Amino acid sequence: MKAETSVPVHEIIQNRRSPRSFNEAAKISREDLIAILEAARWAPSAFNGQPWRFYVGQRGDEVFSQILSSLGEFNQSWAKAASALILVAGKTTRGDGSPHADYQYDCGLAAAQLVFETHHRGMIAHQMTGFNRDVAHKVLTMDADTTAVVVIAIGVQDSHEKLSGPLQERELAPRSRLPLNEIVVKGLPN
Fold first, then answer.
1. pLDDT digits (tens, 9 = 90+) for 17-29
2. pTM for the complete prediction?
3. What kind and span of H or E run contains 165?
4. CATH number for the domain including 124?
5. Cα dist. 181→3, 4, 8, 13, 178 in Å?
6. Residue 31: inside a domain, yes or no?
7. Of 62, 90, 92, 144, which one has the greatest count of Cβ atoms within 10 A?
8. Distance CA 183, CA 190 (A)
């Protein structure tokens, strides 16, 4: 289901969704995974600080299980079928030890580029903030100045019919966003 936009936008943006139905038999190739991470690595960054850190698990490995254990029960129920789980974390201090006030913004840009590259490669990505940051910090043995920002499930989309109840309803729901005239506070062209 394509997004209804007021003017044409790039097809990846128009077609992007956050599905929860993953093909649990699909594996992600090393080349695709590296390309997805490269796209994130080249995201814009304030003062080129690059605060993002990626914890990458592929279904069946220890890192995948660690990330999965930090997810809320609802997210675990469907994310376990993803080919990969990537936890994006941010360094909260700069190289000189000063606070990095913009780390979340930079991590968001990296996550966006990661998601776009995933969709460009014919896969799907679903971003989640429904996870326990303390659990993630502990099981992934993160540095003291690193904090979890988002978990992204990546894989091949499967049929919505394998889901039921609220999961299936969300899978089939139309995409919606507030109209531009509600989010552009000043300067919207006529």
1. 788 889 999 999 9
2. 0.93
3. helix 165-172
4. 3.40.109.10
5. 17, 15, 17, 20, 8
6. yes
7. 90
8. 15
Q: Is the dihedral of CA 183, 88, 9, 123 positive or negative?
A: negative
Domain count, the chain: 1
Does some domain include residue 9?
no
Q: Closest by alpha carbon to 174, among 20, 8, 10, 17?
A: 17
95-124: pLDDT as tens digits: 899 999 999 999 999 999 999 999 999 999
55-84 pLDDT, tens per residue? 999 999 999 999 999 999 999 999 999 999
Q: Give domain status of residue 170, yes or no.
A: no
Beta strands (DSSP E) in 92-169 are 124-128, 146-155
In a domain, 190, yes or no: no
Q: Mean pLDDT for the chain?
A: 92
Return the structure tokens found at 174: 């139309």
